[in-house]
Amino acid sequence: MALATRTDLRNVAIVAHVDHGKTTLVDAMLRQTDSFAAHAHLEDRAMDSNDLEREKGITILAKNTAVTYKGKHAGGQEITINVIDTPGHADFGGEVERGLSMVDGVVLLVDASEGPLPQTRFVLRKALAAKLPVILLINKTDRPDARIEAVEEETHDLLLGLASDLQDEVPDLDVDAILDLPVIYASGREGAASRTRPADGALPDNDDLEPLFEAILQHVPAPSYDDEHPLQAHVTNLDASPFLGRIALLRIFNGTLKKGQMVAWVRHDGSHTTVRITELLKTRALERYPAESGYAGDIVAVAGMDEITIGETIADPDDIRPLPAITVDDPAISMTIGTNTSPLVGKVKGHKLTARMVKDRLDRELIGNVSIRVVDIGRPDAWEVQGRGELALAILVENMRREGFELTVGKPQVVTKTIDGKMHEPFEQLTIDAPEEYLGAITQLLASRRGRMEGMTNHGTGWVRMEFLVPSRGLIGFRTEFLTTTRGTGIANAIFHGYEPWAGSIVSRNNGSIVADRSGVVTSNAMMTLQERMSFFVNPTEEVYEGMVVGENSRADDMDVNITKEKKLNNIRSSTAEELERLTPPRQLTLEECLEFAREDECVEVTPEKVRIRKVELDQTLRARAASRLKKQNA
Predict the structure, then answer these.
(1) Where are the beta strands (DSSP E) in 242-371?
(2) What is the CA radius of gyration of the chain?
(3) Judging by beta carbons within 10 Å of its beta carbon (0-12, 13-18, 19+), is residue 190 exposed, middle or buried?
(4) pLDDT recorded at residue 524
(5) Is residue 59's pLDDT more than 50?
(6) Rounded to an integer, what is the distance from CA 549 to the centroid of its chain?
(7) What letter does residue 220 receive in the DSSP assignment?
(8) For a designed S-S bond to 322, which of 266, 403, 494, 618 qualifies (C-beta 3.0 to 4.6 A apart)?
(9) To which H or E segment does residue 383 belong?
(10) Which residue, among 492, 483, 494, 490, has the nearest Cα to 435 in the 3D structure?
(11) pTM
């Protein structure tokens, strides 16, 4: 056994809380290493290639790029730095775990004003548990409200806290090395970094990213391998190509992989098959190019295995040694996804309507998304989909909607566990930044959702930071109410905390629903007579059906209304006929808002053109019977 290292290669992940500037920093790294031809057009946030990522401004999928560094710290050789851009949202935590399994070190990005937030804690804990070296990069030093020194101290406190938490899980953790981490001050947007701390709100005293590249080369170890060890490679991501079929992204840990080579494909259950590598691709900037071979430490893409999934191993057929599987945290939120069962189903030609199509699409999602599960609930047309959070499941439904599916989606529920005979539910650690004047309103809002305050800090800037422990149920539908309470100024971030005993009943919405009592077309006349007492979700001339939720009541109970009532016409001219009817514009709800708004007896109808809320039981009489039965039981 002889250990060797690849000095011409580094594998690094960039991790941070959502919106702290990871993808913008990767853009600057690509530009400064001349990764693109002089005439090439590089869009901002080039790594966010998915439509939804561009719209929402967040990273959803972990992606890799490779930059070739030939600068002054390279020592005369070309060094390839494989960079993994990971999502900053806790709902996509499965992507973070996958990204960390490919790398030998992490760059932890922290916003110079916001400081370490719950997701910073989450990704940092994963990195320390995997014993990866950390480089701290304090980004956005040029923000007017930057507080660089305080943020650096907060991050050191966080590191110390996490190291002591992990002492039992990882006994040989080197706490001194963790606290002695290199610190870099940067502005990703300007492409500038420095080892010298600038004044708050000022740019670093250097105009390029050389200090960052130097820190990566010095502190991220070069991949090491045993040159006598047989081939071992881990599947960490999947992609698809119309020409090559399914493509598996591999991190090679030992041995050499060549195009055309016969290898053993080891599945999760331990069984293995001998297959041929039909194509081998490497990454340069944002493009993949064909290559003949990959060596230990490389991240390569291979084709030739149609059924391969994440976490499986590619090994030497003569000496099979499987690698440990990637472990992912358990899902906390579930929702039912099924075929569209509303009276307006299939109104548009070409939509995907059948249960077989929906099931095939959910099975395809399972292949590439390690953090969701699909559970059979004994119905032929609906399935329970479990995920990390509401946003992750809403993104899946939104993608299916854009692909032409018509679906019925149930209200998000929590995934409970029974521990020692008692029911436990998932709790979240919620961090809120808001102006001081909303402190009382926010505390009251979270108290009604069974939240308990864990801590509060006031930086003396007029803003206050509060930390709460809240049941995950209490956060379903919380965001809209929170933004209304804080007039859109509050920032809320949640991270999974663990399972605790059931907290009791939570009232998610104080106002009832306005439900259409018959099918037809919405008239402005009916809306005029009703608008004093309610707000609407539908426009005049829109088609509705019995049981469809058309608005929000100003009172707590549901109300069935005739929203299709037409104006009675006669042959006598009215003196008020020329009056202009002024309608309050209806609220246009997005998919996420619909999922938040829906109550337990409601679900969301999703079609490519429209998202509607409806009652699970459409018939008005049957709903009334069920409500009176429930009242008798509770009496």
Answers:
(1) 245-254, 257-258, 262-266, 272-276, 279-284, 287-290, 293-294, 299-303, 313-315, 333-339
(2) 28
(3) middle
(4) 84
(5) no
(6) 29
(7) S
(8) 266
(9) strand 382-387
(10) 490
(11) 0.72
Most confident of 21-30, 68-77, 399-408: 399-408
Q: Where are the alpha helices (DSSP H) in 438-590?
A: 439-447, 478-485, 524-530
- Side-chain-facing half-sphere of 143: CA atoms under 13 Å: 19
Burial class of residue 325, CB neighbours in 10 A (0-12, 13-18, 19+)? middle
Helix (H) or strand (E) holding 152: helix 148-165
Please check whether residue 82 is in contact with residue 299, taking contact to mean a CB–CB distance below 8 angstroms: yes
424 contacts 500 by C-beta, under 8 angstroms = yes
What is the rounded distance in angstroms from the CA atom of residue 586 to the CA atom of residue 590? 13
Pick the closest to residue 271 from 328, 315, 326 (CA basis).
Answer: 315
Q: How confident is the model at residue 13 (pLDDT cuts 50, 70, 90)?
A: confident
What letter represents residue 571's amino acid?
N
Whether residue 171 is predicted with pLDDT greater than 60 in this model: the reply is yes
Task: Check: CB of residue 200 under 8 Å from CB of residue 146.
Answer: yes
Of the candidates 102, 112, 32, the residue with the CA atom closest to the CA atom of residue 63:
102
Closest of 500, 479, 498 to residue 432, by C-alpha: 479
List CB contacts of 344: < 8 A, sequence separation 6 or more.
543, 545, 605, 607
Residue 160 tokens, joined: 């110390």
**Distance between CA 460 and CA 569 in Å, rounded?**
65
312: its two tokens: 């499986």
> How far apart are alpha carbons 424 and 433 in whole angstroms?
29
pLDDT of residue 619: 86
Beta-carbon contacts of 573 under 8 Å, excluding residues fewer than 6 positions away, are none
Among 137-141, 222-226, 248-252, name the most confident range: 137-141
- Taking the mean position of all CA atoms in its chain, how far away is CA 460? 32
Task: Give the CA angle between residues 254, 260, 264 to the nearest 5°.
Answer: 50
Cα torsion 607, 610, 613, 619: sign = negative
